[in-house]
Amino acid sequence: MGNPKHTEVSVARQSPQRPDADEPELDDSTGPAEPDQADEAEEADRGSASLDRSLWDELRIEPVEIALPAGVGFTLRAYRPAGALTPTDVTERDQDDPFLARRQVIEEEEDDDETVVILDEEMAEEFAESDEDAESRRRRDGDTDADEADEGATDEASNEEVPVFLSHRGKLLLFKTPESLVSFIRSGAPNDLSQLDSWNELSERVEPADIEPLDEDNYELDLVVENLRGGHDTWDSTLLIKAGEAARDLAYALRLPAVLDMLSAGSSLDDLDEALRATANGGIGGFMGRRRLKKIGAQTASLGWRTIVGKISAVVDWRD
User: Fold this and answer.
1) Which of 106, 120, 137, 178 could be a cystine partner for 208, CB 3.0 to 4.6 Å?
2) Tally of CB atoms within 10 A around 271
3) What's the CA gap between 317 and 152, in Å, rounded?
């Protein structure tokens, strides 16, 4: 899906001509009513648009449009506290990936190799005593406070809002038309958003006309690699920043650790994102951001994003 360029065309409005002396002037009672009707129609349109948006605001779910090399599709996204969500089950998806399945087997074998077997009973007693001593020292040295701090951090993490998409078993469900998306929502088919308390109400109220994502929820991942290949002077900050936000959300919700690593703090793609944001903000920060951008290799960035788009595309379940 392209990023259309809107050309603004200003049209000079002509001053109304004075009526001829021979023609009688129309008073308010006999004047044409079309302008008033047009104004009423515009107000009605604005009111209906506001009403449609209120559905999503009330239920805290939003329609999203994602463009990938294979096509453009609609889906849904919500943000909820991490502790209130059950992550998508990726067991079946990972079993279908022979490379990932093999890696998991290797990791399990490495974990098994680290198991220590103690055959001598006296040595076993010594290990047990040393463990008890270590525990007593830990409590004496005040490590209990550290444990409480860890528990507090865990509670804070569980309250942090995280993304969840319309997905099932580790697959993102993308629909090519609003009608097919609404049909699925009403069908009662299993999905990861059905755990939300507002899901049933959405399935009763949503209409195809409601599936109209905001501009900020429209992500053109299909254009990222091509834009990066064009070189620093052609990089589209808005396109690339939004793509990074979408990729992070999708990687978290669909459990794609490799994508999260590629976009993690300190990575080359994260440096690209920060430099683009600084450039977009302007000022001294924008100047420094442009300098940082020149140090980022276009080929490295495009190759990294091609990998990200490929991994996301691999976990999409297209629905007509």
Assistant:
1) 178
2) 16
3) 38
Query: Residue 239: what pLDDT?
Result: 97
pLDDT at 86: 96
User: 204 and 274, same structural domain?
Assistant: yes
pLDDT the model gives residue 94: 82
Query: Integer distance in angstroms from the first to the last C-alpha of the chain?
Result: 18
Reading phi first (left if > 0) and then psi (alpha if -120 to 50, else beta), residue 110 is in alpha
* Same domain, residue pair 209 and 275: yes
Q: Kindly state whether residue 40 falls inside one of the protein's structural domains.
A: no
1 located within any domain:
no
Biggest CA pair distance of the chain: 122
Which of 110, 136, 159 is the endpoint of a domain?
159
The answer to whether the beta carbons of residues 230 and 82 sit under 8 Å apart is no
Taking the CA atoms of 246, 249, 252 and 253 in sequence, report the sign of the dihedral they define. negative
> Apex CA 294: angle with CA 289 and CA 296, to 5°?
95
> Is residue 258 domain-shared with residue 208, that is, in the same domain?
yes
Dump the DSSP string for 186-241: HHT---GGGGSTTHHHHHHH--GGG----GGGEEEGGGHHHHHHT-GGG--HHHHH
pLDDT at 7: 39
Taking only Cα atoms into account, the Rg of the chain, rounded to an integer number of angstroms, comes to 29
Tokens read off for 118: 């103690």
Residue carrying the six token digits 């294979």: 70
Measured CA to CA, the distance from residue 273 to residue 192 in angstroms comes to 29
Task: Give Cβ neighbours of residue 55 (< 8 Å, ≥ 6 apart).
Answer: 202, 205, 206, 210
Distances (CA, A) of 221 to 239, 253, 273, 312: 8, 17, 15, 10
Instruction: Decide if 110 is inside a domain.
Output: yes
Mean pLDDT per block of 10 residues along the chain (320 residues) reads 42 40 46 51 49 86 98 98 95 74 53 52 57 60 56 66 97 98 97 98 96 97 96 92 98 98 94 90 70 87 97 96
Range of the domain at 68: 58-96+161-319
Is residue 79 within 8 A of residue 252, CB to CB? The reply is no
